[in-house]
Design a protein that fits this description.
Layout (H helix, E strand, L loop, with lengths): L2 H17 L1 H13 L7 E6 L1 H9 L10 H17 L5 E3 L5 E6 L4 H20 L1 H7 L10 H17 L5 H12 L28 H8 L3 H7 L2 H9 L14 H8 L2 E3 L4 E3 L3 H22 L1 H18 L8 H13 L5 H25 L10 H4 L2 H8 L3 H4 L19 H8 L15 H7 L17 H9 L10 H5 L6 H12 L2 H8 L2 H6 L4 E4 L6 E5 L2 H12 L7 E8 L4 E6 L8 H15 L3 E9 L2 H10 L6 E9 L4 E6 L18 H4 L2
Parallel strand pairs: 1-3, 9-10
Antiparallel strand pairs: 2-3, 4-5, 6-7, 8-9, 10-11, 11-12
Helix pairs in contact: 2-5, 3-4, 5-14, 6-13, 7-8, 7-13, 8-13, 8-28, 14-16, 16-24, 25-27
Length: 675
């Protein structure tokens, strides 16, 4: 590129950035007014190719040399060319966060992604699962992800440039490590060097194996070692098994106990220092990105919710930008497949609405003469919603209506901003939210009276009314419905959302809020592939089935849960892994290829116990005639790779029974995971 073009490109981006200074400042101010507490954000303007490169790099400008980035760049570029998909922005989890906006965005797009970014940055800063990465550091508030990734990039580049180290070997070693990037214990606080269970007394290799390697005769052994010592060795040559409990952090386990396989000698030898260093770096990066994988639905839904609140409810999109923004949001929420933006936003609205509904119902059930048995008969929900409508004084704020705010409750009004507005220092026609507090904004945007949610209050069923009514304390009684509604806490919905945002991940979020009511109202169903017909078909619309299916997709990043069960399998230093089976069998082809990668990190034979579903061809034919699915039989399998060939053998059920879960337990709450 010529210097002239380079300068022109820089000046164009500077001009765009200058135009966005006010939207950036005002979006941050509005976000904080709404209760968000984002990290500081640095905004960058980039072009289409730079955006694709950043997406390929996971949102960072510097990553280690590896072929995967080129592959991801090519895929991202083709997605834009052939499917019409467009990346408006990308933001990384760092303090400060860095957000990259595409220069081709319209002003409405830029405003939308800025509000979206502020909400993401709040989620990064306040969600406890992101805190697991920094929890073991001296300064827990400092993420320093960009600096860490740059250090890794520099170190690996140096290894690749070292004349004594084969560049191809480094890249191949990275490939081996990346095959286990999701096999970490993402529920633990990250520590750079994790203590992993080993034998109670460390032995410098298997002594018997060392003697065999020396090729000593029994006569020589008898002369060198006294008989008593040899008898003791034989007596104590029982199997040493470690770890004591299954270890999910495979990367840490092979880092501490693994070796490399030396093809020339045909045996395991110690890893080179650079190999252990690369393992450490890959593990650190896996832990850094784990929280983003664990909270995809929550995080994207959170950002979409607050983006909508700012752009639409508070009209951050100007009158001339609104149609453009509506088109932007429709494309984001309507994209096909399991859309984390759409599902996440719907669930956050459900959290808000159910909390607000319960708050209102608790007040109504304390009215004299009203109980859970008769509430729906004696209460007019239309009248209740009319009473809950925000007062005109805060619903419509203009320069000419400021006087009306003087009569509003004290906690709703930011009196310093109101005074400045009276003096003409605040443009309330453009930014009316500036004269309101968090409480005032919650009152102004109360969810139950919004057009799309007006039926939510009356949708309550008798079972829920009974659950609420039976456990109410009689600490407050009201003479009328009007009096009860005066005590409604209008911040209840938002307060609950902020609490959930701090403690949950996608699995616990779906477990708690993917209710039968939500599933039924949104018409969710499950589908599966039929062995009888060879086609996909709707399997169930039952809430329990839908919930289980979704939870399975997000547990352990949607990947199989594999743990180390024995680092000295068969008393031969072989590695035994176990697949914690939940009804979904492994892709055996991929499992075999992964074992080959793990062999390179362990240096000795690797074994994997799993459970498969076998279906007899005769049963399939019978099922076709009877228009039903064949019943599979579950069997235990041991897959083994010894460095030369992969073998698969059937094992007795009692050897795999401990791996099988009758049902998936999703009752574990975050505080237990964090303990």
């Amino acid at each position: 590129m010529s210097k002239t073009n380079s300068n022109a490109d820089r000046f164009r981006k500077q001009a765009i950035a200058a135009d966005l200074e006010e939207p950036v400042a005002e979006a941050r101010h509005l976000a904080q007014k709404l209760g968000l507490e984002p990290y500081p954000v640095k905004y960058w303007i980039i072009d289409y190719d730079e955006m694709n490169e950043l997406i390929a790099y996971g949102g960072f400008q510097s990553r280690y040399p590896h072929w995967r980035w080129g592959m991801q760049y090519d895929r991202q570029q083709k997605q834009g060319q052939y499917t019409g998909g467009k990346a408006f922005e990308i933001v990384n989890n760092d303090n400060p966060a860095h957000a990259f906006l595409q220069e081709s965005n319209t002003l409405a797009d830029q405003k939308a992604v800025i509000t979206h970014v502020e909400a993401h940055s709040d989620f990064f800063a306040k969600n406890e699962w992101f805190g697991l990465f920094t929890g073991g550091q001296s300064d827990e508030a400092q993420v320093n992800a960009a600096a860490m990734l740059e250090r890794h990039a520099r170190a690996i580049d140096e290894y690749m440039s070292d004349p004594e180290i084969d560049r191809a070997e480094v890249e191949k070693w990275i490939d081996h490590c990346l095959s286990l990037e999701d096999n970490i214990d993402q529920h633990r606080v990250f520590e750079r060097r994790l203590d992993v269970d080993g034998p109670a007394e460390e032995i410098d290799g298997d002594l018997a194996e060392k003697l065999d390697e020396l090729g000593l005769s029994e006569e020589i052994k008898g002369e060198v070692f006294d008989e008593e010592w040899l008898e003791k060795l034989e007596a104590e040559n029982g199997q040493v098994t470690f770890p004591e409990e299954p270890q999910k952090d495979l990367l840490s386990f092979v880092r501490e106990h693994g070796k490399q396989y030396d093809a020339e000698s045909g045996r395991a030898v110690e890893m080179e220092p650079w190999q252990r260093d690369v393992l450490d770096m890959m593990r650190a990066e896996a832990y850094y990105f784990a929280a983003q994988k664990m909270t995809k639905i929550m995080n994207e839904g959170w950002a979409a919710y607050w983006e909508s609140a700012m752009m639409t409810d508070e009209a951050f999109a100007g009158d001339d930008e609104f149609v453009n923004y509506a088109d932007h949001m429709a494309k984001v929420l309507a994209s096909g497949g399991l859309n984390p933006y759409s599902l996440g936003m719907e669930l956050w609205e459900y959290v808000e609405n159910t909390t607000n509904r319960r708050e209102v119902l608790e007040r109504l059930l304390r009215v004299e003469g009203i109980s859970w048995r008769n509430l729906t008969d004696v209460v007019d929900f239309d009248d209740v919603l009319e009473t809950l409508e925000p007062p005109v004084s805060i619903a419509t704020i203009e320069a000419g209506t400021l006087e009306e705010l003087e009569a509003a409750p004290e906690e709703w009004i930011d009196h310093d901003a109101l005074s400045a507005a009276h003096d003409g220092e605040v443009d309330v026609d453009r930014y009316p939210w500036k004269v309101l507090t968090y409480e005032g904004l919650a009152r102004r945007h109360y969810s139950l009276v919004k057009r799309q949610h007006r039926g939510f209050l009356s949708r309550v069923n008798q079972n829920e009314l009974e659950r609420i009514g039976r456990y109410l304390f009689d600490d407050a009684r009201y003479a009328s419905v009007e009096e009860a509604l005066e005590d409604v806490e209008f911040t209840a919905g938002w307060d609950r959302m902020y609490d959930v945002r701090e403690s949950h991940n996608d699995v616990t979020f779906l477990d708690e809020f993917l209710t039968e009511e939500f599933i039924t109202e949104n018409n969710y169903f499950t589908y599966e592939h039929s062995k009888a017909t060879g086609q996909f078909h709707v399997a169930s619309d039952a809430a329990e089935d839908v919930k289980k299916k979704l939870l399975l997709q997000f547990t352990n990043f949607g990947k199989p849960t594999i743990a180390v069960y024995d680092g000295n399998y068969n008393n031969a230093n072989e590695l035994l892994l176990g697949h914690q089976y939940n009804g979904v069998m492994l892709d055996l082809g991929k499992a075999k290829e992964t074992l080959k990668r793990i062999f390179e990190l362990w240096g000795r034979p690797v074994n994997l116990l799993t459970i498969v579903k076998d279906v007899n061809e005769h049963d399939v034919e019978v099922a076709k005639r009877r228009n039903r699915e064949p019943e599979p039989e579950e069997r235990g399998k041991l897959i083994r790779y010894d460095g030369e060939e992969v073998t698969v053998e059937t094992v007795p059920w009692n050897e795999v029974e401990h791996l099988s879960a009758e049902d998936v337990d999703y009752d574990t709450k975050p505080d237990e995971w964090l303990a």
